[in-house]
Amino acid sequence: MSKKIQPIILLTGFLLVSGCNNDTQSNEPNNQHMMNQQSNEGNHHMMDDSTMEHGHMSHDNVVSLKDSTGVNELNIPPLLTSDATDRTEYTIKAQTGKVDILDGMTTETLGYNGDLLGPVLQFKKGETIKINTINELDQETTFHWHGLEVPGEADGGPHTTLSPGEKEQIEFKVTQEAATLWFHPHPEGKTSEQVYKGLAGLIYIEDSNSAKLEIPKEYGKNDIPLVFQDRIFDEQGQLDYKAVMNEDGTIGDTLLVNGTVNPVLPVEKEQVRLRLLNGSNARNFTFKLNTGESFVQIATDGGFLNEPVTLNEVTLTPSERAEIIIDFSQLNSTNDLSLINEDGSILLPFDVSNQEADSLKTSEKLNDFAVTDEEENMPVTKNIELFGMMEHVEINGKKFDPERIDFTQEQGVTEVWEIYNKKDMMGGMIHPFHIHGTQFKIVSRDGVEPKEYEQGWKDTIAIHPGEKVKIAIQFKHKGVYMFHCHILEHEDNGMMGQIEVK
After folding, report:
1. What PANTHER family would the database entry show (predicted)?
2. How many Å apart are CA 129 and CA 279, to the nearest integer?
3. Rounded to the nearest 5 degrees, what angle is found at the Cα of 278, between the Cα atoms of 276 and 281?
4. Which residue of 34, 65, 143, 361 could cross-link 57, Cys pair, CB 3.0 to 4.6 Å?
5. Which CATH architecture has domain 1-367?
6. Strand (E) positions, 252-292?
7. What is the pLDDT of residues 259-281, one digit of tens each?
8. pTM of the full predicted structure?
């Protein structure tokens, strides 16, 4: 097996679920494939616009991903080193780049501190962080810290753009618990393209609890960051976003994991922690083992679950994260083992060595999370209605207006919001709903307690057509924050609002 290290790319795109003309909880649309599975030889295949329009034939069909052939060892993002020895201070540059993603072709990309994607930032709860942000692009951008609880002026929303050549330093104290977060641009109307071309990176927060837990912690060996993104490459091997953009969410047939095409992950026969991020613009992923065997989920977007939850699959809509542990020493077979999507597409093959690693028993108690009785019985104070498709998307009947404040809330006060995904004539589609600057609790889905794997801190939640979800939410800081659909094309089309925390 060759070990061609591919550069890191964090591109966004997720499996479009428009036209889910039913009330089921499936996060994938009707699995009629728009095209036959393409040959895995020659990843510069250009999709035929006569059979699909930028990833869609209709709202009930999505293109299937080509199977990973497992010929390229997975690229692991570097851990960024602090600029100072006595404090945590990082410098993050948004840059243009060129990367040999496909064999024999050089792709023009965007990246943080490199050609594609970005490094992993490490924070500890309680410390003060300084970040120097620099825009080396030829267009405006922002630096949004997705899932991070920071003051509004540091959040990196569309109000805080940096012009080409501009620099800015932000400073904040880390007040939240251990979690896997990420960062990406958020300029109004340009987010989808900048993420698609490679602007994204991960953030790890650690705390005293995570330090004492018995879980895999060796970065790059048994603690693996995984950023999943689907893309379309043209005949020249380029990410021509304007040519393939779809107003309802841009999807592709080629999968990148940490920017690697046809990846394989070498592992030993031990427990391995996978930190999953759906970094796609619009594709949902349902992760499962091709053998059908189980694994455990230990964390959601914003922190650990109370205890490991045994699952056979986990579904993530765009921007959602989950941490899972696979015990490779306990599987029935490790030959031809892969992480696959719901339709059977091979996402990430594993190369399991015969070497037995030190045994580890995962902590049975991970966290102390709860929705309180008070939160369960609070009246709804804010109603959010999500509606529409393509350029006709809206929240509460309105499109985003940077001069309009849609809601206000008092700092440090918990309220209950109800988010409703209103069906349309086609049945509607799943909207991943994200709120900036905070983590929230899911109180109920259509009046029912959330499943065990959702009983943890969240910053993005999948809302199904016709579904009403209640969340308990508190903002620790003051400022103006966005709330929006994280289908990036919907966000750019105005499916976004603003809340001011006073």
Report:
1. BILIRUBIN OXIDASE (PTHR48267:SF1), CUPREDOXIN SUPERFAMILY PROTEIN (PTHR48267)
2. 25
3. 165
4. 34
5. Sandwich (2.60)
6. 254-257, 260-261, 263-269, 271-278, 285-289
7. 999 999 999 999 999 999 999 99
8. 0.88
